[in-house]
């Protein structure tokens, strides 16, 4: 895939598989969770939402792998017990959450791919279960997922790098605030907060035009941004 194809891409699956072999596994899982959060209204049980939060905390070193495993087990237990009909949006959403929280170490891009894939089907099936499990993907949802992928991974052709000199106490504080202050259950970061962060980052000496433009953009921005 070319850089132009990446920047204009609307097929998150193809984009995901075009990432380098050493692409961050942490970002893979954050992308998967972000896709699930787009269909959070279809996760009818509290365990699914809690498991997504636990998975995020695990990625920040705030939870152990045992907690991640417990969340994954809980999702699958509730899923089996409730028996959502085949082809229902709830079943697709639960499957997506299961993929996103899978305790595989390290998380494989297959998990991210199937989390996005089934979240896409969940969005497409909203209000109209797909008979016989037939799947109908949503072009709008795939486009939104492609945007999330660009937010989390940036451009693999021009990786962003942060110079230590830019990380003044003010910049570090704003980065932490932007990361924590987010809308739930979508998990989107506050765009205005990121714009202020970009201004301070530039004042600290950042000259990366792509990085500053992204932070000042409308988003959506999610964890891993």
Write the SSE topology.
Layout: H1 3-8, H2 12-18, H3 25-37, H4 46-59, H5 65-82, H6 89-100, H7 109-124, H8 139-153, H9 169-180, E1 182-183, E2 188-189, H10 191-203, H11 209-216
Antiparallel strand pairs: 1-2
* Beta-strand residue percentage: under 5%
Order of helices and strands: HHHHHHHHHEEHH
Shape field: globular
- What is the number of strand segments? 2
Main sheet: strand order: 1-2
Number of domains: 2
**Major β-sheet profile:** 2 strands, antiparallel
The low-pLDDT segments are 130-136
Q: What class would the helix/strand composition place it in?
A: mainly alpha
Mean pLDDT: 86
What share of the residues lie within helices?
Answer: 55-70%
Radius of gyration: 18 Å
What is the overall number of helices?
A: 11
Distance between the termini: 22 Å
Brief synopsis:
This protein is mainly α and 225 residues long. It has helices spanning 3-8, 12-18, 25-37, 46-59, 65-82, 89-100, 109-124, 139-153, 169-180, 191-203, 209-216, and strands spanning 182-183, 188-189.
């Amino acid at each position: 895939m070319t850089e132009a194809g990446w920047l204009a891409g609307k097929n998150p699956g193809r984009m995901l598989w075009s990432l380098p072999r050493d692409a961050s596994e942490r970002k893979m899982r954050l992308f998967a969770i972000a896709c699930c959060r787009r269909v959070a209204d279809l996760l009818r049980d509290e365990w699914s939402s809690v498991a997504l939060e636990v998975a995020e905390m695990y990625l920040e070193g705030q939870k152990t792998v045992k907690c991640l495993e417990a969340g994954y087990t809980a999702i699958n237990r509730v899923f089996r017990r409730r028996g959502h009909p085949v082809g229902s949006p709830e079943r697709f959403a639960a499957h997506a959450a299961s993929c996103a929280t899978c305790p595989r170490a390290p998380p494989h891009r297959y998990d991210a791919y199937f989390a996005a894939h089934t979240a896409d089907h969940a969005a497409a099936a909203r209000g109209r279960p797909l008979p016989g499990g037939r799947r109908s993907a949503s072009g709008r949802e795939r486009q939104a997922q492609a945007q999330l992928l660009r937010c989390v991974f940036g451009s693999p052709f021009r990786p962003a790098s942060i110079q230590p000199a830019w990380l003044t106490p003010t910049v570090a504080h704003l980065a932490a605030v932007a990361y924590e202050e987010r809308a739930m259950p979508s998990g989107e970061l506050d765009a205005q907060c990121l714009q202020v962060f970009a201004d301070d980052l530039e004042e600290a000496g950042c000259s990366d035009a792509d990085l500053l433009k992204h932070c000042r953009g409308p988003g959506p921005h999610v964890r891993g941004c």
